[in-house]
TrEMBL record:
Residues 78-340, 611-850 form the Glutamate-ammonia ligase adenylyltransferase repeated domain. CDD domains: NT_GlnE_GlnD_like. Residues 362-506, 875-1013 form the PII-uridylyltransferase/Glutamine-synthetase adenylyltransferase domain. This is Bifunctional [glutamine synthetase] adenylyltransferase/[glutamine synthetase]-adenylyl-L-tyrosine phosphorylase. GO terms for molecular function: [glutamate-ammonia-ligase] adenylyltransferase activity; [glutamine synthetase]-adenylyl-L-tyrosine phosphorylase activity; ATP binding.
């Protein structure tokens, strides 16, 4: 072999250049321009197969040489067809008279065949009159079958030439699939004409003519998206024409129902035989009637009434999904149209059946589970990320939403994707992905089947077959030689995209809820909405309708999405404590975010966001107000990970970054306060969604406060340095009370004390003045409200009343002054207060030294009897003097019976008594210290569990009051509405407010008994 020819053959894609050279030397190709041959072969998906086919074809039809000699401009379609389809090459070799298809292709405009012309052509092939309403063939048996199949394949060649020559095969694919469906319908029409002729020999012309048979295409054929080779799914409908009692008569013939069924069965069987039976011309494809009522066990043909009776009583959900694509493709068109009209309402009502969505989802899973293991990784159609994922997703969305939106009532997948995108049921990006992926997968399936015209949905495994497939999916304008690896990479990427979209959309929770709405509710008509709003519990249906009308008015995509979402959201919002307020809040958030590209799509697609948003807006004034000024935070609701509170370190890093870029103090502090506001909202959303537990809420809120104080202190110190020319002292902010224990709620202030230590060389008096200036600036920075203000938002007020000497003492002291005071004057209540002291912001070295000082005070070696009596006296005084006048002690969660104060004072007494000897008790957190006391045996485990339950419940109610109303309150609500809202926040089911009330009163009553027994029984 000449080395140059070998290299050339390899370069054009020959897998066996030695064999190719032998064929090039064949006598059939003698005298042909070698360069023209090689140029033509270079355009073939499989050059070796094209070369073999060309030699065999020229042997049967020598004038094909003229096409090759005319040059690549005229011969390219020949090479493309022979290199893409061995089966169509064999057809032309069997019937060389049809090689004129190449000349016809070159002389005609590349447009699709008219369905009417296809029908006429195939009917004429069997000698039937296309103008007859019920054509009867003039030939029967194998002769008619062969003529029908030859005419079919002739048209198939014409289509394949246009398909293989398309500039963009994926763009051409819907047209190719539609023409394949029309061609199949025409073939069935001709086959029915043959079957009529054969049936007349058995039943007589008049009886056969008295029976109308409509062939209903199902699946891909019904949707006009058929493959090159695929089963054609059909359902047969018959009708005995004539008398109203079901008997038909033409002339002297009459046909009763039984006789009509017999004739109809013969017609249907003969039709399938003409298409599928063995013969000298191979069969076309199987006619599959298993989608008929009762499947294989049911009669092959039924009357329209029989079909409808079955669908009304016995049909399963999957049968209505199959009927989505039902279309009359052959036979009696009037009967077929009546069938379509009769089943259409059943199809679009089917999504309202109990468990419909779940049954469709389960069916898709069964399809995947039943794929043979050896085929799972090769499936283009059935496997994960395959065609079925697209089709099931699209069909489920159509069936659920198509009840109310008639624009979705289309049969084919690409049109359905476009309609779903236009209506906002899937996002534009998802629609583009779905459409392009579906076309690409169908193109792969087409090209795999075209090779041998065999029904397969598996990717080939050999490199040669993969290489040919890669080249066959290229458009004529595409260049380059794609490799098998590139093809497989593109296929796997497509499968991953499809699977991700399928899992996100196919299992979206809105589908179940929408499916359970009535058609009127789903359409959101004013009459249905008014009635539904009142039934759901909206107190002001008229006002709610105004909000709905404002959200849904117009023809914009935003309005369309709102119309889709609101029927579902109204029900979820109504489950909240304040549906009217929730709907108003939803309108405000939507108006703020409605023009963004992600908001409404998130609510439509997210597994959690829509329901979470509906609930929090109706259950929490705090969240509703915060979302109104930070609406972009809605995005967090779609992901638990986004709702996880940021750590203190993360917040501090962000704050330091902001401060480094903003030198103007007020602007810098605004950014710090915005970060705190954002994190409080994140915590509240996580709390309401159950992402974090109540103990974590307290820690997260404390971290948000601490990060803000850290930022404010840095700004205050910078301001003092600018004013005084130098920094003279370090200031330490020490958290006290619940802030020190990292167990605050949404309405808690921050109890603190301030410590400073002059820097070396600084005048003590000047350092003290600067410390006071820093503290004053710090407090002012934190308490200045943000704009726009949020009614329910808590500014961070720093309360320094727990400092030495209380309100009468110095606001800030040096560490030496603290040491002297604690050595000489400290009272037992101050030691008790220091149990929760925790450094919050300031110099680390100062914090270490101050906490070492504090430990000597709060963990005394011995607690005297006088100290114990003083603690009891102060506790009694707090109960008598601080409890609000008229407040019910049994309902006050802080100072009342068995509330926060009781548990905390008992735990703190144990810490004062035993903390010096048991380091385990040295915790600023109440629950940690209580757990340690139980472990040490200082309090029985059952009593510790009871106290912890009472404390946590009281804390939860306290936070729930703020979350619900936006106002701090230490009372268990007595109003039913408020109590119901608090119960919801505390995790109780709907309408269980009394259960919360009874539980709280019971557990705090028993906690008070434990408190009195342990607190007052301690030895003085």
């Amino acid at each position: 072999m000449a080395p140059s020819l070998t290299r050339r053959l390899i370069s054009i894609g020959s897998a066996d250049p030695e064999r190719a050279e032998r064929f090039l030397a064949a006598r059939e190709l003698e005298g042909l321009d070698g360069e023209a041959l090689l140029e033509g072969l270079a355009t073939a998906p499989d050059p070796d197969g094209a070369l073999l086919g060309l030699v065999r074809l020229i042997e049967r039809r020598p004038d094909i040489r003229q096409l090759v000699e005319a040059g690549i401009g005229r011969s390219e379609p020949l090479f493309r067809l022979l290199g893409a389809s061995e089966a169509l090459g064999e057809f032309l070799i069997r019937h060389p008279e049809h090689t004129d298809v190449f000349k016809t292709h070159l002389s005609a405009e590349p447009v699709g065949a008219d369905p009417a012309l296809l029908r006429e052509s195939l009917l004429r092939s069997v000698g039937a009159d296309p103008g007859s309403s019920r054509p009867v063939a003039s030939s029967t048996g194998p002769q008619a079958y062969a003529a029908l199949r030859i005419a079919y394949r002739r048209h198939l060649c014409e289509l394949a030439l246009r398909d293989l020559g398309a500039a963009s095969p994926t763009d051409f694919l819907p047209a190719a699939a539609a023409e394949l469906s029309d061609l199949a319908g025409a073939a069935l029409e001709a086959a029915l004409a043959v079957s009529r002729a054969e049936a007349e020999a058995s039943f007589g012309r008049e009886e056969v003519a008295a029976v109308a048979l409509a062939v209903i295409g199902m699946g891909k054929c019904g949707a006009r998206e058929l493959n090159y080779i695929s089963d054609v799914d059909v359902v047969y409908v018959i009708e005995a024409e004539g008398s109203p009692d079901g008997a038909g008569s033409i002339g002297s013939a009459s046909v009763d129902a039984t006789r009509a069924a017999t004739i109809g069965t013969a017609l249907a069987s003969g039709l399938a035989r003409a298409v599928w039976s063995p013969g000298r011309e191979p069969a076309l494809w199987q006619v599959d009637a298993n989608l008929r009522p009762e499947g294989r066990d049911g009669p092959l043909v039924r009357t329209l009434d029989s079909h409808l009776a079955y669908y009304a009583r016995w049909a399963e959900s999957w049968e209505f999904q199959a009927l989505l694509k039902a279309r009359c493709i052959a036979g009696d068109r009037d009967l077929g149209a009546r069938y379509e009209a009769a089943v259409s309402p059943l199809v679009w009502a089917s999504a309202g059946r109990d468990g419909f969505v779940e049954s469709v989802q389960a069916m898709r899973r069964r399809v995947t589970d039943n794929i043979p293991a050896a085929e799972a990784d090769r499936q283009i159609k059935l496997g994960a990320g395959g065609l079925r994922d697209v089709e099931f997703t699209v069909q489920l969305l159509q069936l659920v939403h198509g009840r109310a939106d008639e624009s979705l009532r289309v049969r084919d997948t690409t049109s359905a994707i476009a309609a779903l995108a236009a209506g906002g049921y899937i996002g534009r990006a998802a629609a583009v992905e779905f459409d392009s992926s579906y076309r690409y997968l169908r193109l792969l399936e087409h090209r795999v089947q075209l090779t041998k015209l065999r029904r397969t949905h598996l990717m080939p495994t050999s490199d040669d077959a993969l290489r040919a497939l890669a080249r066959s999916v290229q458009g004529v304008l595409e260049t380059g030689r794609p490799s098998p690896e590139q093809l497989l990479d593109a296929w796997h990427r497509t499968k991953r995209r499809v699977r991700e979209l399928h899992e996100r959309i196919f299992y979206r929770p809105l589908l179940n809820t929408v499916a359970n709405l009535s058609p009127d509710e789903a359409r959101l008509t004013p009459e249905a909405a008014q009635a539904r709003l009142a039934a759901l519990g909206y107190r002001d249906p008229v006002g709610a309708m105004r909000h709905i009308e404002a959200l849904t008015a117009g023809v914009s995509r935003r309005a369309a999405l709102q119309r889709q979402l609101l029927p579902v959201l109204l029900g979820w919002i109504a489950e909240g404590a304040d549906p009217d307020g929730g709907l108003l809040a939803f309108r405000r958030v939507s108006e703020a975010l409605g023009t963004t590209h992600w908001y409404l799509g998130l609510l439509r697609d997210s597994a959690a966001a829509a329901e979470r948003l509906s609930h929090v807006l109706a259950d929490s004034r705090l969240i509703a107000d915060l979302l109104e000024v930070s609406p972009e935070s809605v995005k967090w609701l779609g992901s638990d990970a986004d709702l996880e509170p940021l750590t203190l370190e993360s917040q501090w890093q962000e704050i330091k970054s902001k401060l480094s870029r903003h030198t103007e103090h007020e602007a810098a502090m605004r950014l710090v306060r915005l970060i705190r506001r954002r994190e409080i909202l994140r915590i509240a959303l996580a709390d309401s969604s159950g992402v974090i537990d109540p103990d974590a809420v307290g820690r997260a809120l404390s971290d948000a406060d601490q990060a803000a104080v850290l930022g404010a202190l840095r700004i205050a110190e910078a301001a003092a340095e600018e004013a005084d020319g130098a920094l003279l002292t370090h200031v330490l902010v020490v958290a006290m009370g619940r802030q020190g224990g990292r167990e605050i709620g949404y309405g808690s202030d921050a109890d603190v004390i301030y410590v400073h230590r002059p820097l070396p060389g600084a005048e003590p008096e000047a350092a003290q003045r600067q410390a006071l200036s820093i503290v004053g600036t710090l407090s002012a920075l934190l308490t200045q409200p943000l704009k726009p203000p949020v009614l329910a938002e808590r500014v961070l007020a720093l309360d320094a009343d727990l400092r030495p000497e209380g309100k009468n003492g110095a606001l800030v002291r040096s560490i030496d002054s603290f040491a002297e005071y604690y050595r000489r004057w400290a009272l037992v209540w101050e030691a008790q207060a220091l149990l929760r002291a925790r450094p919050m912001a300031g110099d680390d070295s100062l914090a270490h030294d101050f906490m070492a000082l504090v430990d000597t005070v709060r963990y005394p070696e011995e607690l005297s009897a006088a100290d114990i009596r003083e603690i009891r006296r102060i506790k009694a005084r707090v109960e008598s003097e601080r409890l609000p006048r008229g407040a019910d002690p049994s309902r006050h969660v802080k100072l009342g019976r068995g509330g926060l104060s009781d548990v905390e004072w008992l735990v703190q007494l144990l810490q004062l008594q035993h903390g010096a000897r048991h380091p385990e008790l040295r915790s600023t957190g109440t629950m940690e210290a209580l757990s340690a006391a139980s472990t040490l045996g200082l309090i029985p485990a059952d009593e510790a569990e009871l106290l912890a339950e009472a404390w946590r419940l009281a804390s939860r109610i306290r936070s729930a009051n703020v979350a619900w109303s936006g106002r701090a309150s230490d009372l268990l609500p007595s109003s039913r509405r408020d109590l119901e809202a608090v119960a919801r926040w505390c995790g109780y089911p709907q309408d269980q407010a009394s259960a919360l009330e009874q539980h709280y009163l019971n557990v705090t009553r028993r906690a008070r008994q434990v408190f009195e027994r342990r607190f007052y029984a301690a030895e003085p």
